[in-house]
Structures are given as structure tokens and as C-alpha cells.
Amino acid sequence: MKPKRLLVEFIRSTWYIYLSSVTLHMVASIVYVFFPHVLGEFTDRLQGGQMTGSDIVRYSLLLLIIGAGHAVIGGFGQYLVMYVGRLFEVMTRRRMFVHFTGLSEHFYSRNGVGKLLSYFMNDVTGVRESISMGVNQTAMATMLFVSSIVAMVVSGIPTYLIVASVGPLILIPWIVTKFGPAIRKRSLRVQEALGTMTESAEEQFGGIRVTKKFAVEPIMIGRFGETVDRIRDNQLKLVRMSSLFQALVPFLGSLSLIVALSFGGYLTIEGEITLGNFVALTLYVRMLMNPLQQIGNVINTMQRSRASLERLNELLTKTPDIREIEGATHVDLSTAGIRIRGLTFSYPDEKKEALRNIDLDIRPGMTLGIVGRTGSGKTTLVKLLLRVYDPPAGTIFADDRDIRELTLESLRSQIAYVPQDGFLFSTTIRENIAFSRRSAELGEVETAAKQAQIYGNILEFPDQFETKLGERGVTLSGGQRQRTSLARGLIKDAPVMILDDSVSAVDAVTETDIVRTIREERAGKTTILIAHRISALKHADQIIVLDGGAIVQKGTHEQLLSQPGLYATIHAIQEEGSQHASGH
Amino acid sequence: MPQAINNWQMDQKADLGKAPKPQYRSAFRTLASYSKPHRLTFFLVFICTIIAIAAELFQPYLVKVAIDDNLMVGKNDYGSLLVICAVYLGLSLSGLLFTYLQNNLLQYAGQSIVARIRKQLFEHITKQSMAYFDKTPGGSLITHVSSDTEALNQFFSQVLLSLMRDGLTLVLILVMMFQLDATLASYCLILLPVIAIIAISFRSFMRKTYQMARTRLSRLVAFVAENLSGMNLIQAFHQEKEQEKQFRKRNESYFQANLREIRTNVLFNRSFDILSNLSIALVTWVGGKAVLGESMEFGVLYAFITYIRQFFQPINTITQQWNTLQSATVAVSRIWGIFDVPPEVADKQEPLHLRKEDVKGRIDFDRVSFAYAAGTPVIRELDLHVRPGEMLGIVGTTGAGKSSLISLLCRFYDVQEGDIRIDGMDIRELPQSELHRIVGLVQQEPYLYAGSIVDNVRMFDETIAKETVVRACEFVGADPLIRRMKDGYETKLSERGSGLSAGERQLLSFARIIVFQPRILILDEATANLDSHTEQLIQQALSAVSKGRTTLIIAHRLSTIMQADRIIVMRHGVIEEQGTHEELLSLQGVYEELYRHSQGERNDNADKSNSRAGMIEAG
Known about the structure:
Chain B: Keywords: ATP-binding, Cell membrane, Membrane, Nucleotide-binding, Transmembrane, Transmembrane helix, Transport. Chain B: It holds the Pfam family ABC_membrane. Chain B: GO terms for molecular function: ABC-type oligopeptide transporter activity; ATP binding; ATP hydrolysis activity. The complex is a heterodimer. In chain A, 64% of the residues lie in helices and 9% in strands. The relative contact order of chain A is 0.08. Chain A is elongated, with a radius of gyration of 36 Å. In chain A, strand 7 (496-500), helix 15 and strand 8 form a beta-alpha-beta unit. Chain A contains 18 helices and ten strands. Chain A is an alpha/beta fold. Among the domains of chain A are: 1-156 and 297-320, ABC transporter type 1, transmembrane domain (ABC transporter transmembrane region fold, Up-down Bundle), CATH 1.20.1560.10; 158-272. Chain B has three domains: 22-181 and 321-341, ABC transporter type 1, transmembrane domain (ABC transporter transmembrane region fold, Up-down Bundle); 195-295; 358-613, 3-Layer(aba) Sandwich (Rossmann fold). Chain B starts with a helix and ends in a 6-residue tail after the last helix.
């Protein structure tokens, strides 16, 4: 029952729209079925010589009314069903977005943005197609089919003639379901080949400097050419299949007509049916071709979207792994110290321990420096503090309360986090800096920008603080991004601030200035500095050195320098650079 | 709709700007020249099309014959009815066959043309000089090669097919109608302009709504994509509610655009339907009176009714092609816009040659001046002479001209004044391919291709043996690391070498240098962005690689170049200071200040304006 939940809920809330739409479609089909019937009657009266001038006008008008009635009623039905399909998209996407905001980094690390986007776009659309098109076309086609048969029987066309004439048409849905998936498979292969070519072009243009520097252009042109040929071959394979299909469907229609012509004609000659019946029969056969093809399409769409629906349901039933417990409380981090006891942590699905037996006290107002090599666990520690991942119970405390018992809000709104990558959104610079407080005055934003040493750069942009960032706007350098991201953290003015190697792409002189401002601004507030350059954190009240997930050294800069160990080594490498290196 | 993500990605990459106005005539003249080798195929397609549509067109006519000659007159001649059926069956079979042939032939010709254009386009772009790549965003080049040519492909597979098939169908229906009854046919002809006006006016309106929906969709996708990648930040700053509000706005606006699109679509299709029914009623009325007045046979009326119904389908299809036709035209003019640009840096007609093995490695810059844009020189009358085998360090502020100097030596650009010589020969006299093998370059961001490690080191040049690659990797110290990988040297690297750390990637690019043995080596910030330990490994590789070569090193970390034979400090396109590390320190100038900062010695009382002057910005 579970996998169908999404759809069931939706249909439950919109069933009346569906019902009206299906009804309208049915009425339209029934109206339409009279079309050949009226023409047949017209033929008979004409042949019988009972026709008068006013009859002709009457019949013409009748035909017009039938046609127009079908178009208008069907049109409303069609609009309703397409409307309800789009409604499904909007509602489902809204739900998905809310769901996405609750999922943790653990989820995102296993699901790339591309994959999630494909859920968001393709799967939702796939389901939409089958619930709007599917339901209605089936209803309409079935109705048209049934009422045509009934109409034929009623007008006195013998059943065996109907069966014989319509027989070949029944093959159409079967052929559609046979060919549909095969064609789709081949067309996917074309898309893939196209994607490969795009990737290849992307790669080659990206590395054009390298290609040119090694003078290997002919080789690269050859490599690209292969991807082009693959598209052509796949495309031709697709055409072989799809053109056969496209030719086959009308051919079956023709077969039906031939049967109607020969058999029906014979019966007309024999006087078993009237000429009017014969005319109506040929028209019915033509009329039935389309709905039968649609039924085939619907079957294919449904099959495709079933997988989509399952994926969506699975995604939406996934519970976030970081959750607030019931009765979670609030703690004021400006007065509460953070205490870490015996913290050992490994990432989900991984055996290796990322952190081992960490004991640490962070007093309110202190500045803590964390140094270590890549992969030593610096960032992991921070992620646990922010509950990006859940620490094991009873390891991290704020004000003697396990942080797992705090509200997420009290944790995240009181910690300002400045990540290394300096991720910014494609909005204006001002909106980026005022990310945590959208209503911040321009003056506050400017102050933060000045503190982060980015103010001068921003003023150089044409629209200054209103400059739009991103693909269609200005692109910032790595250093500028980091400094903007720093301003975003500073404006939050939170009791705790974490800088995760946040100035690594900034030059030495600017770094010096930034470190000084941070010291001034953060005086009396808790600050955690992570860096691989010692110069950025040597003024910290306490520095811990992480190696392989464990704290190997602890102390102030001077204490750590005076003892042999990793800290002194790193310092030596950084201060003396190549002299040390060339000594190897 | 699966297209939506693609479109969005394309939009992301492309610098679309304003689409040029379609230039139909010139665009199709060029296309015609490409079609020439396929003349015969196109002719065959034409023949096939006529045969293929004959079956469908003759069906109403055949029924008419059956009605008028057999059924209506009450002649009990079943034989001739069977003949009619047999003819129809034959036509249907040939229709099946020739529709198939027509599709395949047309696609074959179209695909061959598109493939040829794609290859030529890629080759042409590859031959451009670096200036071109600097000016043109990579994204738009990719758009040209993939989506513009794809628009062209759609022109062949959809527009041309529809023009041929539906156009011919329309014409032939009209011919048949006039054959049957000229008066009634002329009445039907009145419809044609009405249909055309409705179709065209609706189409342009529909295009607008369609584009609106597409723009809003790509905004929605872009927003979601960005929020998904920045989700950790949204959560860390507790901004879930706020972002959701913004999402709702975009989601809702896309929904509105969709509804508008649906309304237009339904309205258009239904008015077309009504028009079609109106014409049938008209034919019944006019024709019925004629039959009554014995001036027309009933079968003719039957045929007319059927033809009128067949008439609307091709018109609908053709007008649907309008969008595709337009985008194809724009694509063609964009593609030919690229073909029209000749490479800026070109080889001499009769180039001189320099054997790589004989190159000593002496470099002379003589009074070289260069500017990317007129009026703002980047290099000013620069003189620099490098001895064979010398190791030269280059430092300087952003915009000092360090990288431009290197680009000139690689001849990514041509100097505007003065000349650059290698072993006394002007580099403009050399073919670019030879120059590029003589001068090797290692960049800050090592670039790796999708492919095995071996292929990456030998740049897919299969004439280079695997043993050579292995030896090179051993030489730079990458061998133990590669052996540890799953498939050793055959390990496939995914895009841009992901899975390897920055340092490991850099080691591979050093191995490339060993394989290709350039006589002059340039390292452009090749050791930046590495953590201290990887840097040590790279330093060792560096000293291995630079042995016996003239080596130029650009660095912003002074530690990399301290032991160079000579260091030059550049500022505003000229050499400001030069000498060894010790000499420069004793000068107490720009270098000395840079050195102090890199040592992390903070002197808070230092003159601020002075420190700004020495500011160097990392990439």
C-alpha cells in the first residue's frame, strides 16, 4: 500500500476535478460518435431520393453542431485534466523541497545534485504525464471505442462485419506497446551519445591549453570524432526502428479499410446493409485509429512512470536522520561552555574512525585553534558540533546538556559557520551577506564587508552591494568568495563562530588584516579557528593538533613550539619551506 | 521534459546573450552546399515521399470509385470492387515500404551532414589561438558544438521531413480535389487563408507562452540545483523556511506559466477542430446541393469530406515546425559565425625548423611590449635573457604581467613589439606544433582527461610505449602511488581526475613533462593550493624534472623559488628587482616585504599603504 501513497493522497484531494474531466471527455466522445452516423443517414436519404434542400441545410448544421460540441466539451475536459496534472507537479515539488531541507549531509553525500534534480524534474513529470494523460485518454479512447461499436450495431451494421473490419486495428495498441519501449531505449542511447559528445567537448575545451602545449591536437580531434560517429550510428539505429513503427500504424488502418471496403462493399451489393451504413463504417474505422494508438501510448507512459512514482515515494518516506527529540530545550551558548568527552566517531557506512577519543573543553569566550593535516578530522569535529552528523550520545555537551537534546534552532542560530569553499548563492552580494538576517540594514552589511576585507572589492562592481553573483552575474575569485562568506558569518554576530579554513585562498597580507579584525570583533565571544596555515591561528588561547582523528598536542603557540612534535614540524615546513624540503 | 535539466545545464554553460536574428537565405545557402554530395539521396527521398503518401491520398478516391461505379448504381459487379481493394492493398504496401525508405534515407543524409559539420567545427575551434579561448566563455563553445548542431540535426529529422511529406500531401490533396470537382475545390480553397491566419497568429502567441514557461522552468531548476548543493549552509544558518518561501514563489510562477500554455494550446487545437468541422459542414451543404441537383456524384462528395479532414493534419504539423526551423536558422548562423573567425596566431607560410634535441634552451626577450586591449599595456619594453639550464623564479603582484610573459613565450599570443627568441630563433618563425613541444608548461590546476592513467601521461599518443610512461612516473615519484590503485596504470580516471588529490594530479602532470621531454619548462603556480606534506613530494619531483632544462617558475609562495639561480620581481609589466634570494633580501625592497609576510611575521605597526603595495592575491 505504501508505494502508492503519494498518488492516493493527491487523487483523494482532487477527485472531483478528475470526475468532471472524465465526464466531459465521455460526453464529448458520445457526441462525436454521431458524426459518421449522421453522414450515413445523409447518404441513405440522398440515395433514396428523399432529400430536400432544407434537409441538406439541416444535416450540415447537425454535423457542425456535433463537431463544435465535441470540440468545446472535450476542450474543457482536456483543460481540466492538464490543469490537475500541473497541480500535481506544483504540490509534489513543494513537498519535495520541504523534504529536501530536512535531509542531512549524510544523504547528500550519497546522492548527487544531478540525481536529486532528476527526481525533482523527470520523475515528477513522468508521473504527471501518466495521471493526466493516462487517466483521461484511457477514459476517452475507451468511451469512443465502445460508443462507436454500439453506434454501429444500433445503425444495423452486422456484428461480424464490425469485428472483421475493426480486427486489424486491435493490433495497434499491441504494436505500440511492443515498439514503444524499444524505441525509447534506442532514443535514450542517442541521448547518452549526445551527452558523451558534450562531455568530450567540455573536457577538450577545458584542457585546450594542455592539448596545445603538447601539440596533440590531431589525437584529440580524433577522440572527439569518435563520439560524433557514435551519435550518428545510434541515431540511424533509432530511425530504423521508429520509421518502421510510424509506417506500420497507418498500414494497419489501411488494412482495416480494405476489409471494410471489400466485405462491406460485398454486403452492400448483396443488399445486406445500406450504402449509408457502408459510408458510416469506413468513417468509424478512420475515427478509431487515433484512440487505439493513444491507448498504446498510455500503457507505455504508465509503465515508465510506475518506476518514477516508486522512486518519489521512497524519497518522500525517507526520514531525516538528524531530528530534534521531543521536549528539546534551548541553551544560551554565550554563557554555556562546550564540553567534549570521550568522543569517538566514524562516518556512517565507514569502518575507519574519523575521530578517536576526543576530550576538549571550550570555555565561553575563548578562541580555539585546530590544526592538522588534510583528513586529520578537523572538519569532522566541527560537523559534529553543528549536528551536521549526530555525535554518539553522551559525548558532546553544552551547559552540561547533551547537544542531541537541544533544539536544532538553538544550536544553529547561535553558531556562525564559515566553510572553506565559500559557497555563495546566485543572488545579490547584499542578500548573500545578510543570509541569516534578511532584514539587515545596508549599514550592517557594509560593516560586515569591511570587517571581512571585501568592502573595497564590492565597491568596484557596477552595482556594488546589489551586484548579482553567479552564472549570469559577476564571478568572484576564490579569495573574494571566501571573504564574502566570512562577512556572512560575521554579520550573524553569534555567540559561537567557526571558521573552517576560511581564509586559505586569501593572500598573506589580507589574511593578516582579517585575523586582526576577527580578534577585535570576536573578543569575549567563542571562536573556533581551523587552518592549515599556522599564521592564521597562532594567537589562539588554546591550540589543539589533530592527527589521525586524535588530539596529539594541546597548548598555546609558544608552548607547542617549545616541544618537539607535529606542530613544530608543520611550523618548520611553513616557515622554512624549500630549505626543509630540499633536505630530503 | 527530461530535456529540462539538459536545457538548464546548457543555459548554465552558455553565455547566450541575445540570439542573432535568423538570416534565412544565407543560412540555407550554406546548408545547401553541405547537401550537395547527397543530391542523389535527397532526390530519392523525394520520389519515396510521393509514392509513400500516394496510398493515403488515393484511399478516398478509390472509395469514391467504389461508391459511384458500383454501389450507388446497384451494379452487382463484385469483381471490380475486388480490383479496387487489390489496388488499395498494393498502394498501402508500397506506402509501408517507401515511408520506411524515405525516413531512413533522409536521416542518413542528414546525420552524415551533421556529423561532418560537428567534426569540422571542433577542429576549427581547436585550431584557434588562446586569445580566442580567453575571450569566448567555454560554455558557449560547448553550446555551439552540441546544442547548435543538435538544432541542425532536428532541422533534418523533423523540419525537412515535414516540409516534404506534409507539403506534398497538401499540394496533392488540392490537386485531387480539383480533379474531382473544380467548383467545390475552389470553395475549399477559400479556407486556406483563414487556416493560415489562425495557425500563424496562434503560433507566435504560443511561442511566447512557451518561452515564458521555459524561462521560468530553468529559473526553478537553477534555484533547486543551487539550494541542493548549498543545503549544508541553509541548514547551518537555519534558513530552511526562508528558502522554502522563495522556492514557492518560483514554483508558483512556473505553474502560472504552465496554465497559460495549456489554455493557449487547448484553445488553438479546439479552434482548429471547429474550423475543420465547419468546413465539413460547408462541403456537405454545397456538395449536397450539387448532388441533389445531379451536377455531382455522391462518391465525389464522400471523397471531399474525407480530403477535408485529411487537409488539417499536415497544416498543423507544418506550423509546429516553425519553432524548430527558427532555432535551426539561428544555430546555422551561429555556427558559421565561428567558421568565419580565422585563428589569430598562425604559422608562417614557410616556417623554419629547430630540432628539439638540439635546443640548448637560451631564451631572449628583446624590448617586448604587449597589451590584451589597446591602451593598457601589460608588458612594457621588457628585456630578459635566460641562460640555457638556468632556473628562474618570477614573483610579482596580480596583474604584474607574470602569466602574460609565459603566454607570450608559449605563443598563445603574439608580441606587439620586440621579439622573443629561443636559441636565437624568433619563435614566430617556428611552426606552433614544434614550439609547443620545445616549451613545456605545468599549470596550477593540473588538467586530466577521462581515460586511463597511462593515456593521461602520454596524452593518448599510442606511439609512446607504456614502459616510457612507467619510467617517467618512477622518475617523479608517482609510481608507488599508482601501483596502489585498483588497476594500477590502467586505472580509469573519471572527469578531471577526481579521485586523486590535487598533489597526485600534479605529479602526473610532471610525469607528462618527463615523457614529452620539452627543453624549456614553465611552472605556473604549480605548487599552490597544496598542503605542506604534498608540497614536499612535489618539490622533489620538481627538482628531478628541472634538471638539465631551462626552467621558469612563477610562484606566490616564495618557498618554492628561494633556491632559484635568479629571481625577478615584476611590477606593472616591468622587471623591478632581480637577483638571488639573498641579494634581493639585502635590497630591502618589494621582495623583502613579500618575504616578511610569507613568514607570517606580523608587524601590526607596519605602514599600511606600504603593505598594500606588496599585496599578492592567490588564485
